[in-house]
Write a structure and sequence with these properties.
Length: about 190
């Protein structure tokens, strides 16, 4: 029997043309992995970090939504790539999980942090080379205050804004992008 994955209807049985379906290895790999680390969220993490982030050993990676499906994989790939990895998450339990279970170098609980830009600076005194953004808003602003020259920002998601009914305003980033020579062409791209 073959196993396939793709953007299918949530049904037990269906007839499909076969377009845009991918054959997966259901014999040697647990099928549920294709819903996580080998599925949409894992591939988002892998291609976002590697293609847009272009990580180089010794660089510093900051990731928000760090304990989530995408962020947790980003951080682990970052460690495999030899990066110093800092996560941002919403509880002390998650901070401990990131450091002790996933091997992150440090982590910040945004719910107990008044000044995110200062907290990032404390955790990354030499600045951020790559910011993998899952949340947007003030966390992105704070990360941009700490971005290094030639920094890369992966604009993956903006979960903190999804329920906003009005378009929020914030700091204008144009000057930072020019001064820091960031990859602004890719900054707003979420298509890997
Ligand atoms: N571009 C793409 O192709 C692509 C693909 C997949 C996902 N995404 C995006 O990537 C992001 C993460 O997806 P995921 O699947 O990893 O999500 P997830 O597993 O559901 O994790 C999301 C985490 O975000 C945090 N969060 C929720 N509300 C927040 C807020 N107001 N401020 C800060 N953090 C908040 C929560 O963790 P805490 O408890 O730590 O707050 C939550 O557990 C989402 O924005 C999603 O839309 C993009």
């Amino acid at each position: 029997m073959d196993f396939l994955t793709g953007m299918l209807d949530w049904k037990e049985y269906q007839v499909h043309s076969g377009d845009n379906l991918r054959k997966i290895d259901g014999n040697n790999i647990t099928l549920s992995a294709y819903l996580g680390v080998l599925g949409l969220t894992g591939l988002t993490a892998y291609f976002g970090l590697n293609r847009i982030g272009e990580p180089k050993e010794g660089e510093t990676l900051l990731v928000s939504g760090a304990a989530g499906a995408v962020g947790s994989i980003v951080g682990q790939i970052g460690k495999i790539k030899g990066l110093r990895v800092i996560g941002i998450a919403g509880s002390d339990e998650k901070v401990t999980f990131l450091k002790e279970q996933l091997g992150f170098d440090s982590a910040i609980n945004y719910n107990t942090t008044d000044d995110m830009a200062a907290a990032i600076k404390r955790h990354a005194p030499d600045g951020i080379d790559i910011y993998f953004d899952n949340v947007g808003s003030y966390t992105l602003d704070a990360a941009m205050e700490n971005i290094n020259r030639f920094g890369r920002v992966i604009n993956c998601g903006a979960i903190s804004l999804y329920n906003e009914t009005k378009q929020p305003t914030g700091p204008r980033l144009e000057t930072t992008l020019v001064k820091k020579k960031c990859k602004d062409a890719r900054l707003y791209s979420s298509r890997f």
